[in-house]
């Protein structure tokens, strides 16, 4: 441990800082479960089913882009001021989301919310890496992951109750007290001794990343639906993505303080962890974004029941993350990650085989195994990365891994949303009636659903079922990619000397 770390440990009240960090993480975790649970109700009120995935994509795009910037800034200025700025922006976005009157406004405010969210999870995880030793991190990361379990139980329950008995708008406002308490705890009890450096911020890299990822995301969501694949607009977007990402790589290799230092990628364990985090991110968003729509629209269950199908994933995640902390000490990163990869495949297979008649318990079972896989792999990757690098680059190293998972969720939301819309459009075009994708909104509003004729209800539910099955086939493919990637991890034994 470096002198900087020792100084920080001596002055910092670790249990209280851990509590503040867990509050910040809880804020982000409960946001995911509550918003996914509320989305059918939001679409039912605001309309715009074709924009469904944009509510997630807008948030995830800004989250993915800013996580690298925040990670670099934290290595320059310290973790505390950066996470504070992130939480404040996140809360502003949350307040605005609750006041949205149209789907367009909600998407705009989700951009703001995502801009702040990019600092919360990576900074919280990095702070824990700073104040605890290598041996302690495995166990503490497991405790940290218990936040997801608590949010899993409270998030869908609170979200479902708010949607059914109050308004979906309150699901955004529950973040406010959590964020404020976290800021107070961090400023009272976290003390950092940051070495002063000349500040060099990679604005060029940030701009190029925004251009390339925005082009890719827009193409994936709208391609084949509102934008023909062979149109000049689609070709332009492809060119913007390729040129923008190529220029980003060139910029990162020549700048003095890159957003993403590619030297880190030369370490095999970091390279594999980052690539697999990308593929698991696609899986994560594919399930959490679209499963509630299936449970409510096709299985005709309540928002609360739909929320609890996601709860199973969030319960499996912290349980396995806690177990992972012990497994890392006994069998090492490789075998722990391998078990996680097998669990991801099992969960993906359950979703591919899912039929409406199987009920929400089947969906919850698939969610649980995906959660187990996420907990085992993500904990292994974070502890491995933080044990490999020094304090001076730990912020950006942790943020890079978070970025890859966020990039996966961003690409996944766009890709899978595009597949869903494209397949829905195909099913509706094949019917004798003139329906659009946005007419599927009626499935997500109980009153409107009950007024549909039996043949229209059957058409809509069949179209949504078939479309989501295509989505889950892709989710399973990414589970297989994740497992193959894990096979390339270095064969270690354990963290114990």
Describe the model.
The chain is 80% helix and 0% strand. The protein has 497 residues and is mainly alpha-helical. Helix 13 packs antiparallel against helix 17. The longest helix is centred in the C-terminal third of the chain and has 40 residues, at 391-430. It is globular. The protein starts with a helix and ends in an 11-residue tail after the last helix. Residues 1-9 have low confidence and may be disordered.
Short synopsis of the structure:
The chain has 497 residues and is mainly alpha-helical. The protein has 17 helices and no strands. The protein has helices spanning 3-11, 14-46, 52-77, 79-98, 103-131, 134-165, 170-173, 175-189, 203-222, 232-254, 268-297, 303-330, 332-352, 360-388, 391-430, 446-450, 454-486.
């Amino acid at each position: 441990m470096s002198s900087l770390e020792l100084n920080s440990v001596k002055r910092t009240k670790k249990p209280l800082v851990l509590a503040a960090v867990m509050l910040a993480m809880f804020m982000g975790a409960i946001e995911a479960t509550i918003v996914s649970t509320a989305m059918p109700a939001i679409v039912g009120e605001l309309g715009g089913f074709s924009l469904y995935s944009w509510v997630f994509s807008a948030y995830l795009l800004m989250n993915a882009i800013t996580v690298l910037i925040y990670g670099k800034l934290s290595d320059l200025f310290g973790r505390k001021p950066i996470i504070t700025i992130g939480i404040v922006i996140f809360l502003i976005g949350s307040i605005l989301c609750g006041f949205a009157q149209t789907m367009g406004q909600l998407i705009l405010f989700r951009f703001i919310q995502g801009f702040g969210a990019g600092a919360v999870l990576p900074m919280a995880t990095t702070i824990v890496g700073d104040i605890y030793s290598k041996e302690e991190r495995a166990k503490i990361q497991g405790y940290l992951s218990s936040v997801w379990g608590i949010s899993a139980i409270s998030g869908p329950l609170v979200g479902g109750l708010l949607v059914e008995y109050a308004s979906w708008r309150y699901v955004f406002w529950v973040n406010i007290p959590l964020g404020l308490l976290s800021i107070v705890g961090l400023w009272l009890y976290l003390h950092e001794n940051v070495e002063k450096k000349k500040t060099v911020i990679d604005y060029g890299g940030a701009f190029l990343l925004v251009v390339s990822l925005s082009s890719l995301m827009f193409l994936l969501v709208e391609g084949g639906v509102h934008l023909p694949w062979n149109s000049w607009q689609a070709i332009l977007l492809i060119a913007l993505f390729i040129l923008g990402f190529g220029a980003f790589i060139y910029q990162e290799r020549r700048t003095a303080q890159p957003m993403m230092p590619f030297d880190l990628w030369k370490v095999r364990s970091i390279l594999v962890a980052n690539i697999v985090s990308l593929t698991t991110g696609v899986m994560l968003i594919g399930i959490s974004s679209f499963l509630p729509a299936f449970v409510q629209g096709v299985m005709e269950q309540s928002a609360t029941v739909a929320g609890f199908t996601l709860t199973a994933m969030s319960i499996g995640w912290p349980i396995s993350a806690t177990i992972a902390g012990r497994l890392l000490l006994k069998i090492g990163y490789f075998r722990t990650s391998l078990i996680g990869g097998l669990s991801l495949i099992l969960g993906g297979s359950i979703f591919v085989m899912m039929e409406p008649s199987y009920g929400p318990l089947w969906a919850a079972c698939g969610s649980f195994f995906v959660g187990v896989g996420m907990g085992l792999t993500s904990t292994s990757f974070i502890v491995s990365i933080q044990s490999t690098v020094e304090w001076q680059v730990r912020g950006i190293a942790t943020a890079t891994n978070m970025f890859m998972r966020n990039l996966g969720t961003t690409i996944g939301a766009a890709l899978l949303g595009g597949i869903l819309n494209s397949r829905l459009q195909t099913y509706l075009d094949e019917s004798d009636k003139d329906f659009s994708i946005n007419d599927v909104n009626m499935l997500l509003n109980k009153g409107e659903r009950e007024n549909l004729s039996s043949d229209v209800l059957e058409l809509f539910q069949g179209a949504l079922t078939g479309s989501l099955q295509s989505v889950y086939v892709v989710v399973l493919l990414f589970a297989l990619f994740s497992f193959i990637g894990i096979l390339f991890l270095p064969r270690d034994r354990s963290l114990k000397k």
